[in-house]
C-alpha cells in the first residue's frame, strides 16, 4: 500500500496541508472543528505524522532526557511518573536513563542524550560535572536538577527546603525531651544530605545539644541496616535518630524492632524525610518531612520549558518548604503545641 501523506489527509478533510500540520503539532493554534475533521480523516486513512521528519524541519526532537541514579527509593518512582505525565501532556516524549553518582558513568549517559538531540534534560538524584554542563550549554540544551542542587550558576534546580526540614525535625525531637541524638546520613556528596544534616545540627545547637552518634547509609536499604546495627552497638545508644530519608528509615526501624528488640518510640524515636506513601502504613507510621512532589514537578517543568523556549533565560534555583508530618514513630512533646515546629 502507498504511504498515506498529510496531503491525503488534507484532501479528505477539505483543509489545507498546513492545517493538518498544526493539528499534529503540540501547542499549535487550530480550531476544534478543524482538528476534529483532520483527526477523523487521519483515522480513516490510517495516517500517523512522521515525528522524526518534523524534528528535522523544526530543529526540535520533542524528547526530554530524564537521568536517575536509583529507583529503589520510593520517592523517585512517584516523582518520575509525575514528571513523565506532565511532559507528555506538553507533547514531549521522555527517555529515562539510569546513571550513578560516578562522574564517568554520568558522562556516558549525557553523551547518549546528546546523540538523541534531546530538547532538555532533567537530572534527578545525580550530580553533573562542570564539563558536562558546559557541553550541554554549548549545544543549547537546558538542564534542570531535580531534588539535587550544586554550586553552578548555569544550572536550574528544584529542591525541597532541606535545611529547614532538617531543622524542623531537630526542634521536634528536642521538644520531645530527648537527650542523645543520632543521625544516619545518606550519600555524603548529595546536597540533600548536606543540607538536611546542617539544618538538624543547627537546631540541636540552638538547644544546647549535639549529635552523639553518626553513621552513613548512602541512601541504600541494606547499607542503612548496617548503619543502624553499628549505631546501636554501644553502651549509650541514642534515644532519637534522624534518618536522612524514609527509604533508609524503614530499614532502620526493621533492624531496631526485629533484630535488636528496641521499641519505637518507647526506647528510641525515629524520624525520616520524604513522606513516601509507605510512611503512612501502620507497620511504620513514620514521622517525617514531606517533599511536595507535585509542586516540585510543576516548578521543574516550568523551568525547563522556559529555557527550551529561550536558552538565554537565566537559570533559577527554587526551594520548596515541606511540612512536618507527625505520626507514631517518635515521642510527642508533652503539653506543647508542636504544630508550629
Order of helices and strands: HHHHEHEHEHEEHEHEHEHEEHEE
Coarse structural class: alpha/beta
Q: Can you give the helix content as a percent range?
A: 40-55%
What's the rounded overall pLDDT mean?
88
For the record, give the distance between the C-alpha atoms at the N and C termini, rounded to a whole number: 69 Å
Q: What count of structural domains?
A: 3
In the CATH scheme, what's the topology name of the largest domain? Rossmann fold
Would you write up a description of this structure?
It is a single chain. By secondary structure, the chain is an alpha/beta fold. The chain folds into three domains: 6-49, no CATH class; 61-160 and 292-320, Rossmann fold (3-Layer(aba) Sandwich); 162-290, 3-Layer(aba) Sandwich (Rossmann fold). Helices cover 43% and strands 17% of the residues. The chain contains twelve helices and twelve strands. The protein has helices spanning 6-13, 17-23, 32-45, 51-58, 75-89, 103-115, 130-138, 162-175, 191-206, 221-231, 246-259, 293-309, and strands at 63-68, 93-98, 120-124, 143-146, 156-160, 181-185, 211-216, 240-243, 269-274, 287-290, 317-320, 324-325. The strands form two sheets. A six-stranded parallel sheet has the order 2-1-3-4-5-11. A six-stranded mixed sheet has the order 7-6-8-9-10-12, sandwiched between helices. Helix 1 (6-13) packs across helix 2 and helix 1 packs across helix 3. The longest helix has 17 residues, at 293-309. The radius of gyration is 25 Å and the shape is elongated. The mean pLDDT is 88.
Amino acid at each position: 500500500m502507498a504511504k498515506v501523506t498529510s496531503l491525503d489527509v488534507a484532501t479528505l478533510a477539505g483543509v489545507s496541508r498546513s492545517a493538518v500540520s498544526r493539528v499534529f503539532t503540540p501547542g499549535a493554534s487550530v480550531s476544534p472543528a478543524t482538528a476534529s475533521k483532520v483527526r477523523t480523516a487521519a483515522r480513516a486513512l490510517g495516517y500517523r505524522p512522521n515525528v522524526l521528519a518534523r524534528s528535522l524541519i523544526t530543529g526540535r526532537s520533542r524528547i526530554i532526557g530524564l537521568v536517575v541514579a536509583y529507583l529503589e527509593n520510593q520517592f523517585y518512582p512517584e516523582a518520575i511518573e509525575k514528571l513523565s505525565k506532565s511532559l507528555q501532556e506538553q507533547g514531549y516524549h521522555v527517555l529515562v536513563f539510569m546513571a550513578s553518582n560516578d562522574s564517568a558513568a554520568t558522562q556516558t549517559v549525557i553523551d547518549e542524550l546528546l546523540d538523541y538531540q534531546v530538547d532538555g534534560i532533567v537530572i534527578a538524584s545525580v550530580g553533573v560535572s562542570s564539563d558536562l554542563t558546559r557541553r550541554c550549554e554549548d549545544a543549547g540544551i537546558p538542564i534542570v536538577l531535580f531534588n539535587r542542587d550544586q554550586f553552578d550558576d548555569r544550572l536550574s534546580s528544584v529542591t525541597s527546603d532541606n535545611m529547614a526540614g532538617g531543622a524542623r525535625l531537630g526542634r521536634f525531637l528536642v521538644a520531645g525531651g530527648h537527650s542523645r541524638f543520632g543521625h544516619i546520613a545518606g550519600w555524603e556528596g548529595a546536597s540533600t544530605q548536606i543540607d538536611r544534616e546542617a539544618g538538624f545540627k543547627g537546631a540541636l545547637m540552638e538547644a544546647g545539644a549535639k549529635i552523639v552518634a553518626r553513621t552513613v547509609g548512602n541512601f541504600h536499604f541494606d547499607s542503612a541496616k548496617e548503619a543502624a546495627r553499628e549505631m546501636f552497638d554501644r553502651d549509650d545508644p541514642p534515644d532519637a535518630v534522624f534518618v536522612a530519608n524514609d527509604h533508609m528509615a524503614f530499614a532502620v526501624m526493621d533492624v531496631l524492632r526485629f533484630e535488636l528488640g528496641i521499641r519505637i518510640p518507647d526506647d528510641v524515636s525515629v524520624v525520616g524525610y520524604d513522606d513516601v506513601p509507605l510512611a503512612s502504613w501502620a507497620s511504620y507510621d513514620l514521622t517525617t518531612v514531606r517533599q511536595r512532589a507535585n509542586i516540585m514537578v510543576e516548578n521543574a517543568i516550568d523551568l525547563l520549558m522556559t529555557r527550551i523556549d529561550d536558552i538565554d533565560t537565566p537559570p533559577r534555583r527554587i526551594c520548596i518548604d515541606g511540612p512536618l508530618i507527625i505520626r507514631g514513630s517518635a515521642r510527642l512533646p508533652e503539653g506543647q503545641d508542636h504544630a508550629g515546629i
